[in-house]
Design brief:
Length: about 325
Protein backbone atom coordinates (compact mmCIF):
# COMPACT_ATOMS: atom_id res chain seq x y z
CA UNK A 1 0.00 0.00 0.00
CA UNK A 2 1.13 3.53 -0.67
CA UNK A 3 -0.96 5.06 2.06
CA UNK A 4 0.82 7.93 3.77
CA UNK A 5 1.26 7.53 7.52
CA UNK A 6 -2.02 8.42 9.09
CA UNK A 7 -1.15 11.57 10.94
CA UNK A 8 -2.31 12.58 14.37
CA UNK A 9 -1.82 16.30 14.78
CA UNK A 10 -1.78 18.05 18.14
CA UNK A 11 -1.93 21.67 16.95
CA UNK A 12 1.72 21.86 15.84
CA UNK A 13 0.58 23.43 12.59
CA UNK A 14 4.07 24.22 11.36
CA UNK A 15 5.28 20.61 11.52
CA UNK A 16 1.92 19.36 10.25
CA UNK A 17 2.05 21.50 7.14
CA UNK A 18 5.65 20.50 6.46
CA UNK A 19 4.59 16.85 6.64
CA UNK A 20 1.73 17.40 4.19
CA UNK A 21 4.02 19.32 1.85
CA UNK A 22 6.61 16.52 1.97
CA UNK A 23 3.89 13.95 1.23
CA UNK A 24 2.63 15.92 -1.78
CA UNK A 25 6.14 16.54 -3.08
CA UNK A 26 6.94 12.85 -2.96
CA UNK A 27 3.66 11.91 -4.64
CA UNK A 28 3.48 14.66 -7.25
CA UNK A 29 7.01 15.90 -7.86
CA UNK A 30 7.02 19.03 -10.03
CA UNK A 31 3.22 19.10 -10.16
CA UNK A 32 2.99 19.91 -6.43
CA UNK A 33 1.96 23.53 -7.06
CA UNK A 34 -0.90 22.55 -9.36
CA UNK A 35 -4.15 22.44 -7.28
CA UNK A 36 -5.64 20.05 -9.84
CA UNK A 37 -2.93 17.49 -9.14
CA UNK A 38 -4.50 16.25 -5.91
CA UNK A 39 -7.91 16.09 -4.28
CA UNK A 40 -8.74 17.34 -0.79
CA UNK A 41 -11.80 15.92 0.93
CA UNK A 42 -13.23 17.24 4.22
CA UNK A 43 -14.94 14.74 6.47
CA UNK A 44 -17.41 17.47 7.46
CA UNK A 45 -18.43 18.41 3.90
CA UNK A 46 -22.28 18.40 3.89
CA UNK A 47 -22.31 18.23 0.08
CA UNK A 48 -20.80 14.74 0.07
CA UNK A 49 -23.38 11.98 0.75
CA UNK A 50 -20.71 9.44 1.74
CA UNK A 51 -17.21 10.68 2.52
CA UNK A 52 -15.79 7.15 2.68
CA UNK A 53 -17.15 6.32 -0.78
CA UNK A 54 -15.79 9.63 -2.10
CA UNK A 55 -12.32 8.75 -0.78
CA UNK A 56 -12.39 5.25 -2.25
CA UNK A 57 -13.61 6.56 -5.62
CA UNK A 58 -11.00 9.36 -5.66
CA UNK A 59 -8.18 6.94 -4.81
CA UNK A 60 -9.28 4.60 -7.60
CA UNK A 61 -9.32 7.44 -10.16
CA UNK A 62 -6.50 7.55 -12.71
CA UNK A 63 -4.44 10.75 -12.42
CA UNK A 64 -2.67 12.59 -15.22
CA UNK A 65 -0.13 13.93 -12.73
CA UNK A 66 1.10 10.74 -11.05
CA UNK A 67 0.73 6.97 -10.97
CA UNK A 68 -2.50 7.30 -9.00
CA UNK A 69 -4.78 10.05 -7.70
CA UNK A 70 -3.38 11.71 -4.58
CA UNK A 71 -5.99 12.32 -1.88
CA UNK A 72 -5.90 14.23 1.43
CA UNK A 73 -8.66 13.61 3.97
CA UNK A 74 -9.03 16.52 6.37
CA UNK A 75 -10.73 16.41 9.80
CA UNK A 76 -10.88 12.63 9.71
CA UNK A 77 -11.99 12.62 13.37
CA UNK A 78 -15.40 13.84 12.22
CA UNK A 79 -16.21 10.73 10.15
CA UNK A 80 -19.35 8.90 11.25
CA UNK A 81 -18.85 5.39 12.58
CA UNK A 82 -20.62 3.89 9.54
CA UNK A 83 -18.13 5.74 7.31
CA UNK A 84 -15.23 4.57 9.48
CA UNK A 85 -16.31 0.94 9.07
CA UNK A 86 -16.55 1.27 5.28
CA UNK A 87 -13.15 2.97 5.11
CA UNK A 88 -11.61 0.40 7.48
CA UNK A 89 -12.91 -2.48 5.35
CA UNK A 90 -11.39 -0.87 2.24
CA UNK A 91 -8.06 -0.25 4.00
CA UNK A 92 -7.92 -3.88 5.12
CA UNK A 93 -7.49 -4.84 1.46
CA UNK A 94 -4.22 -2.91 1.41
CA UNK A 95 -5.22 -0.78 -1.60
CA UNK A 96 -2.58 0.66 -3.90
CA UNK A 97 -3.24 4.36 -3.39
CA UNK A 98 -1.75 7.68 -2.34
CA UNK A 99 -3.76 8.84 0.67
CA UNK A 100 -3.05 11.05 3.68
CA UNK A 101 -5.51 11.24 6.56
CA UNK A 102 -5.42 14.10 9.06
CA UNK A 103 -6.65 13.57 12.61
CA UNK A 104 -6.65 15.79 15.68
CA UNK A 105 -6.35 12.58 17.66
CA UNK A 106 -6.46 8.91 16.76
CA UNK A 107 -7.03 6.13 19.28
CA UNK A 108 -5.46 2.76 18.60
CA UNK A 109 -8.71 1.13 19.74
CA UNK A 110 -10.86 3.04 17.23
CA UNK A 111 -12.18 1.42 14.05
CA UNK A 112 -9.66 3.25 11.85
CA UNK A 113 -6.89 2.78 14.42
CA UNK A 114 -7.35 -1.00 14.35
CA UNK A 115 -7.49 -1.04 10.54
CA UNK A 116 -4.23 0.88 10.27
CA UNK A 117 -2.55 -1.39 12.81
CA UNK A 118 -3.67 -4.46 10.85
CA UNK A 119 -1.81 -3.24 7.75
CA UNK A 120 1.17 -2.18 9.94
CA UNK A 121 0.74 1.53 9.38
CA UNK A 122 1.82 3.70 12.31
CA UNK A 123 0.40 7.16 12.91
CA UNK A 124 2.86 10.03 12.75
CA UNK A 125 2.32 12.45 15.63
CA UNK A 126 3.11 16.14 15.96
CA UNK A 127 3.04 17.19 19.59
CA UNK A 128 3.49 20.79 20.58
CA UNK A 129 6.79 21.41 22.34
CA UNK A 130 6.48 21.91 26.09
CA UNK A 131 6.91 25.48 27.25
CA UNK A 132 10.29 24.82 28.86
CA UNK A 133 11.53 23.08 25.68
CA UNK A 134 10.24 25.76 23.31
CA UNK A 135 13.48 27.83 23.15
CA UNK A 136 15.38 24.69 22.07
CA UNK A 137 12.70 23.96 19.45
CA UNK A 138 13.02 27.50 18.05
CA UNK A 139 16.82 27.26 17.93
CA UNK A 140 16.75 23.87 16.19
CA UNK A 141 14.13 24.82 13.58
CA UNK A 142 15.70 28.20 12.90
CA UNK A 143 18.91 26.48 11.87
CA UNK A 144 17.08 23.74 10.00
CA UNK A 145 14.69 25.86 7.92
CA UNK A 146 16.43 29.24 7.62
CA UNK A 147 20.05 28.11 7.96
CA UNK A 148 20.49 30.88 10.53
CA UNK A 149 21.53 30.72 14.16
CA UNK A 150 19.51 32.54 16.79
CA UNK A 151 20.50 34.02 20.13
CA UNK A 152 19.24 31.95 23.08
CA UNK A 153 17.84 35.06 24.77
CA UNK A 154 15.94 35.77 21.54
CA UNK A 155 14.46 32.26 21.73
CA UNK A 156 13.35 32.83 25.31
CA UNK A 157 11.79 36.18 24.33
CA UNK A 158 9.87 34.62 21.42
CA UNK A 159 8.63 31.77 23.64
CA UNK A 160 7.34 34.26 26.18
CA UNK A 161 5.93 36.69 23.61
CA UNK A 162 4.13 34.24 21.30
CA UNK A 163 3.79 30.96 23.16
CA UNK A 164 3.97 27.61 21.42
CA UNK A 165 2.05 28.60 18.29
CA UNK A 166 4.72 27.04 16.08
CA UNK A 167 3.23 28.32 12.84
CA UNK A 168 3.18 31.92 14.10
CA UNK A 169 6.72 31.65 15.48
CA UNK A 170 8.16 30.54 12.15
CA UNK A 171 6.04 33.04 10.22
CA UNK A 172 7.38 35.88 12.37
CA UNK A 173 10.97 34.74 11.87
CA UNK A 174 10.39 34.36 8.13
CA UNK A 175 9.05 37.91 8.03
CA UNK A 176 12.13 39.23 9.86
CA UNK A 177 14.36 37.43 7.36
CA UNK A 178 12.37 38.77 4.41
CA UNK A 179 12.82 42.34 5.64
CA UNK A 180 16.45 41.78 6.69
CA UNK A 181 17.86 39.21 4.24
CA UNK A 182 21.50 39.96 5.03
CA UNK A 183 21.47 39.42 8.78
CA UNK A 184 24.06 36.80 9.82
CA UNK A 185 21.86 35.58 12.69
CA UNK A 186 18.69 36.40 14.62
CA UNK A 187 19.87 38.62 17.47
CA UNK A 188 17.85 39.43 20.56
CA UNK A 189 17.58 43.09 19.56
CA UNK A 190 16.25 42.47 16.05
CA UNK A 191 13.74 39.90 17.33
CA UNK A 192 12.46 42.33 19.97
CA UNK A 193 12.13 45.10 17.39
CA UNK A 194 9.82 43.00 15.19
CA UNK A 195 7.90 40.70 17.52
CA UNK A 196 5.40 42.28 19.90
CA UNK A 197 4.42 40.23 22.96
CA UNK A 198 0.85 38.97 22.83
CA UNK A 199 0.78 36.29 25.50
CA UNK A 200 1.19 38.55 28.52
CA UNK A 201 -1.38 41.00 27.20
CA UNK A 202 -3.96 38.23 26.88
CA UNK A 203 -3.08 36.52 30.17
CA UNK A 204 -3.25 39.93 31.89
CA UNK A 205 -7.05 39.82 31.45
CA UNK A 206 -7.33 37.25 34.24
CA UNK A 207 -6.15 39.75 36.88
CA UNK A 208 -9.47 41.58 37.23
CA UNK A 209 -11.47 38.40 37.82
CA UNK A 210 -8.83 36.94 40.13
CA UNK A 211 -8.70 40.16 42.14
CA UNK A 212 -12.50 40.35 42.42
CA UNK A 213 -12.38 36.89 44.05
CA UNK A 214 -15.55 35.85 42.25
CA UNK A 215 -15.23 32.12 41.39
CA UNK A 216 -17.94 32.19 38.72
CA UNK A 217 -16.51 35.02 36.59
CA UNK A 218 -12.92 33.89 37.26
CA UNK A 219 -13.54 30.32 36.08
CA UNK A 220 -15.42 31.57 33.01
CA UNK A 221 -12.53 33.87 32.03
CA UNK A 222 -9.98 31.15 32.78
CA UNK A 223 -11.74 28.73 30.44
CA UNK A 224 -11.98 31.40 27.72
CA UNK A 225 -8.24 32.15 27.89
CA UNK A 226 -7.24 28.48 27.74
CA UNK A 227 -9.77 27.11 25.26
CA UNK A 228 -10.60 30.06 23.00
CA UNK A 229 -7.50 32.27 23.14
CA UNK A 230 -5.16 29.25 23.41
CA UNK A 231 -3.15 30.69 26.31
CA UNK A 232 -0.99 28.01 27.93
CA UNK A 233 -1.95 27.39 31.60
CA UNK A 234 1.70 27.79 32.64
CA UNK A 235 1.58 31.38 31.32
CA UNK A 236 -1.50 32.08 33.45
CA UNK A 237 0.31 30.65 36.49
CA UNK A 238 3.16 33.08 35.92
CA UNK A 239 0.75 36.00 35.44
CA UNK A 240 -1.22 35.18 38.61
CA UNK A 241 1.97 34.69 40.63
CA UNK A 242 3.24 38.16 39.67
CA UNK A 243 -0.18 39.69 40.30
CA UNK A 244 -0.55 38.01 43.70
CA UNK A 245 2.87 39.34 44.71
CA UNK A 246 1.77 42.84 43.66
CA UNK A 247 -1.45 42.51 45.69
CA UNK A 248 0.63 41.43 48.69
CA UNK A 249 2.77 44.56 48.33
CA UNK A 250 -0.39 46.66 48.16
CA UNK A 251 -1.85 44.94 51.23
CA UNK A 252 1.37 45.57 53.16
CA UNK A 253 1.36 49.29 52.26
CA UNK A 254 -2.32 49.56 53.19
CA UNK A 255 -1.43 48.16 56.62
CA UNK A 256 1.07 51.00 56.91
CA UNK A 257 -1.81 53.45 56.31
CA UNK A 258 -0.41 54.61 52.97
CA UNK A 259 -2.82 56.47 50.72
CA UNK A 260 -3.81 54.95 47.37
CA UNK A 261 -2.08 57.75 45.47
CA UNK A 262 1.18 57.08 47.33
CA UNK A 263 0.92 53.32 46.70
CA UNK A 264 0.49 53.99 42.97
CA UNK A 265 3.64 56.15 43.00
CA UNK A 266 5.58 53.50 44.93
CA UNK A 267 4.61 50.85 42.37
CA UNK A 268 5.31 53.22 39.41
CA UNK A 269 1.83 52.69 37.93
CA UNK A 270 -0.77 55.06 36.49
CA UNK A 271 -2.79 56.47 39.39
CA UNK A 272 -6.09 56.72 37.48
CA UNK A 273 -5.93 53.12 36.20
CA UNK A 274 -4.68 51.84 39.56
CA UNK A 275 -7.38 53.53 41.67
CA UNK A 276 -10.34 54.37 39.45
CA UNK A 277 -10.43 51.72 36.73
CA UNK A 278 -9.02 48.67 38.54
CA UNK A 279 -9.34 49.67 42.21
CA UNK A 280 -6.34 47.53 43.11
CA UNK A 281 -6.42 48.40 46.84
CA UNK A 282 -9.90 46.90 47.04
CA UNK A 283 -8.70 43.74 45.30
CA UNK A 284 -5.83 43.41 47.79
CA UNK A 285 -8.34 43.76 50.63
CA UNK A 286 -10.57 41.12 49.01
CA UNK A 287 -7.82 38.58 49.66
CA UNK A 288 -5.88 39.81 52.67
CA UNK A 289 -2.22 39.16 53.47
CA UNK A 290 -2.48 35.64 55.00
CA UNK A 291 -4.42 34.25 52.04
CA UNK A 292 -2.19 36.00 49.52
CA UNK A 293 0.89 34.39 51.12
CA UNK A 294 -0.74 30.97 50.77
CA UNK A 295 -1.72 31.74 47.17
CA UNK A 296 1.81 32.76 46.21
CA UNK A 297 3.17 29.54 47.71
CA UNK A 298 0.55 27.46 45.87
CA UNK A 299 1.21 29.22 42.54
CA UNK A 300 4.93 28.51 42.89
CA UNK A 301 4.05 24.84 43.47
CA UNK A 302 1.76 24.82 40.42
CA UNK A 303 4.55 26.26 38.28
CA UNK A 304 6.76 23.31 39.21
CA UNK A 305 3.95 20.75 38.96
CA UNK A 306 2.89 21.93 35.49
CA UNK A 307 6.48 21.77 34.22
CA UNK A 308 7.00 18.29 35.70
CA UNK A 309 3.76 16.98 34.11
CA UNK A 310 1.97 16.26 37.40
CA UNK A 311 -1.07 17.64 35.57
CA UNK A 312 -0.61 16.05 32.12
CA UNK A 313 -3.57 17.65 30.32
CA UNK A 314 -4.84 21.19 29.89
CA UNK A 315 -8.13 20.14 31.50
CA UNK A 316 -6.44 19.03 34.72
CA UNK A 317 -4.30 22.18 34.69
CA UNK A 318 -7.38 24.33 34.23
CA UNK A 319 -9.09 22.60 37.16
CA UNK A 320 -6.03 23.17 39.34
CA UNK A 321 -6.09 26.89 38.48
CA UNK A 322 -9.86 27.08 38.98
CA UNK A 323 -9.47 25.76 42.53
CA UNK A 324 -7.39 28.81 43.52
CA UNK A 325 -10.34 31.20 43.86
CA UNK A 326 -12.85 30.71 46.63
CA UNK A 327 -15.52 33.28 47.61
CA UNK A 328 -15.08 35.35 50.78
CA UNK A 329 -16.90 33.97 53.82
Amino acid sequence: ARICSSSTFFHDFFSKNLAIEAFLKKALGESINDPMAYKTIYATDPQIPSVAEAIIEACDTVSMFSEEQTVILRQADELKESENKLLAEWLSRNPDCSLLMEFKSLKATSTIGKALKAIKLKAETFDLPKDYKLPDWIMENCKKHFNKSIDRNACAYIAEAIGNDTWKIMSELKNILFLNPNIPAFSENIVKSFIVPTRKMQAFEINKFFGDRNPETYVKKLHELIEEQKIEPIVIVSQLFNYAVQLLHIATMLEQNMRGEDIAKALHVNEYIFLKLNNEPRKAMNWGKPLLCRLIKRLAELDYEFKSDKYPTKTTQELALAALVIPPR
